[in-house]
Design goal:
By secondary structure, the chain is α/β, with parallel strands linked by helices. The protein has a single domain, classed as 3-Layer(aba) Sandwich (Rossmann fold), CATH 3.40.50.720. It has eight helices and eight strands. The protein has helices spanning 20-31, 55-64, 79-93, 116-146, 161-165, 171-191, 234-240, 280-293, and strands spanning 11-14, 35-39, 68-72, 98-100, 153-158, 196-204, 252-256, 259-263. Helix 4 (116-146) packs parallel to helix 6 (171-191). It is globular. It binds nicotinamide-adenine-dinucleotide (NAD).
Length: 304
């Protein structure tokens, strides 16, 4: 007898699921028996309003394959959009088990050319766009826990290598994606007592966001494996969003092609305590001595 699907009966929200990675996640969850809320506002590459809202198409694709899905076309970076997103899950299916925060867009510029608008728009869609759905889902799960219906809930947030190591020309995006890691750590610590696990991924895949960067990335010769297919990222996202990932929370994974990497974050390196205040010259001398014994940080993406 074959094993039951990993997410049988679970209700899963995926934001920005109209295309790219979010669409791949939604299809992968549906293939594992989940019931979906497919969110997408339908914006252009830089966040400007676009004609089409692709959420309905993906929901239809899931239903055509025999799955359950409903579309939500709201903006996840607004209170109304985030609240109505969670409400859609509860009104349609009567429950919510997993939230995948994925929606976003880019406004890449070198810092000296980065307008306040480009900063605000990218911080808003990624950082606030993670916080608001998380906050509304968390309030629901806390109420469930208090009512004695212990949730077994999951949140998967989307960071980026840019947020972990930095990326030239992406100061706004890197700051937002690093902020998402901080938010993930706090949410994991605060929500554990309510039965909610919160993790983050740093994916890489060929989507409209990275089309140019990854245009030349070819499948491994002879293997037929397209390493940059967004669907390669989804299996880990499905597992993290399932009951099977019990005990895993507050972690960050890089996932790309056939590779999964646990990212190990900031931790104390070489250290010295004088037990008194340093002079600036002494502090500098000590800092240099410590640096000579410390591990060099990973290279910033795109740095010369
Ligand atoms: N593709 C990669 O290699 C890569 C690498 C690192 C991180 N990421 C992250 O993965 C996520 C998905 O990226 P993608 O490459 O699939 O991009 P994409 O442009 O293909 O898809 C993003 C989707 O989010 C939607 N969206 C944007 N703003 C929204 C809003 N306010 N409300 C609801 N939906 C909104 C867009 O309409 C779009 O359909 C993003 O958070 C991105 O930063 C992607």
């Amino acid at each position: 007898m074959s094993a039951p699907p990993l997410c049988h009966g679970r209700v899963v929200i995926v934001t920005g699921a109209g295309r790219g990675l979010g669409r791949a996640h939604a299809l992968a969850y549906a293939a594992e028996g989940a019931r979906l809320v497919v969110n997408d506002l339908g914006v252009g590459l830089d966040g400007t309003p676009a004609e089409d809202s692709p959420a309905a198409r993906v929901a239809e694709e899931i239903r055509a394959a025999g799955g359950e899905a409903v579309a939500h076309g709201g903006d996840i970076a607004t209170t109304e959009g985030a609240a109505s997103l969670v409400r859609t899950a509860l009104e349609t299916y009567g429950r919510l088990d997993t939230l995948v925060n994925n929606a976003g867009f880019l406004r890449d510029r070198m810092l000296v050319n980065l307008d306040e608008d480009d900063w605000d728009a990218v911080m808003r869609v990624h950082l606030k766009g993670h916080f608001l759905p998380l906050r509304h889902a968390a309030a629901h799960w806390r109420a469930e826990a208090r009512a004695g219906r212990a949730p077994d809930a999951r949140v998967v947030n989307t960071s980026s290598g840019a947020g972990l190591l930095g990326s030239v020309g992406q100061g706004n995006y890197s700051a937002a994606k690093a902020g998402i890691v901080g938010l993930t750590l706090v949410a994991a610590a605060e929500m554990e007592r309510y039965g909610v696990q919160v993790n983050a991924i740093a994916p890489a895949a060929r989507t409209r966001m990275t089309e140019r960067a990854f245009a030349d990335a070819m499948a491994a010769p002879g293997s037929g494996f397209d390493a940059m297919d967004p669907g390669n990222v989804s299996p880990l996202v499905v597992w993290l969003g399932s009951a099977a990932s019990a005990g895993v929370t507050g972690r960050v994974f890089e996932t790309e092609g056939g590779r999964i990497t646990v990212m190990e974050g900031w931790r104390p390196g070489p250290s010295v305590d004088k037990g008194a205040r340093w002079t600036p010259a002494e502090a500098g001398e000590t800092a240099r001595a410590l640096l000579s014994r410390a591990e060099a940080p990973g290279a910033v993406y795109g740095a010369l």
